[in-house]
Request: fold
Amino acid sequence: MKIGIVGAGNIGALLARKFAAAGHSVKLSNSRGPESSGDIVRGTTVKAVSNEDAPKDVDVVILSVPFAKNPDVAKLLAIAPSDAVVVDTSNYYSARDGNIPEVDAGKPETVWVSEQVGRPLVKAWNAVLSQTTAEAGVASGAGNRIAIPIAGDDAAAKKVVADSVHISGFDAVDAGTLSESWCFQPGTPSYCTELTTDELKLALADASKDRAPKTAMRSCRPLRTGKLNLPGTAWLPTTGPCQPDLFLPAVDSCGWHYITTEARRKN
Ligand SMILES: NC(=O)c1ccc[n+]([C@@H]2O[C@H](COP(=O)([O-])OP(=O)(O)OC[C@H]3O[C@@H](n4cnc5c(N)ncnc54)[C@H](OP(=O)(O)O)[C@@H]3O)[C@@H](O)[C@H]2O)c1
Reply:
């Protein structure tokens, strides 16, 4: 498979190395140009390229840029083959991305991205921390393999992405259409909670649009209860997402006990 990844940060660089290690042809770009990605591609077959080169002549384009930067990369997709599968890994955190009124009003995040970039998208890898992607992937068939939700409107595109998720070391669970993809956005029971396939299906079914965090909560850290039949997710005030030092066990004001993804992995 030929894969072009736009965004060479935590997620883009990790996925690039994984796909290349599995024998795929991978191009990787960022905002600063290919010369800035020397450390990332050294010792791999990943090719550091310009933004304009990354989507050219590939089967899959992965957009892995900060949420609010997605409109900036729209023009690159005009360069991608019309039948290329396009993936969105992004999550919206208003504290980082600024307020986007349509998303604040409830538009699913990847629906908004899809409108911005003018292409159908498959949402994937957003609901797993980069640390998990880096450390917790295992071969297909291994026990307790962590599952990742994906969503999109095109079954064939989702199959390509599901296969790619397997290559990255995780099971893939189809969470429905793009408009249903709110059910694994930040703060929902599936978000960054490192669930197995069976657990993830329950967590997706347990997602509630009413309980999903609104804008005000978007700078908060999602944590998960130890049992799926409990409310599922809580939000603790933090300064931002994805900070390993903020993985703290906690009890919320209702007395619900929460464990962290870190604690869960060790258990
Ligand atoms: N970190 C996580 O644990 C995690 C987990 C799941 C999903 N996500 C989501 O996935 C997305 C990427 O996350 P990340 O942690 O990998 O972000 P990151 O480390 O901040 O990297 C972002 C990358 O996007 C590139 N970029 C920004 N604007 C660009 C543009 N106009 N053209 C090309 N490249 C551009 C940056 O280029 P430069 O290198 O030149 O600055 C950088 O390489 C975010 O939306 C995030 O919410 C993150």
User: Anything to note?
Assistant: Residues 137 and 156 are 24 Å apart (CA to CA). The chain has a mean pLDDT of 82. The first strand starts at residue 2 and ends at 6.
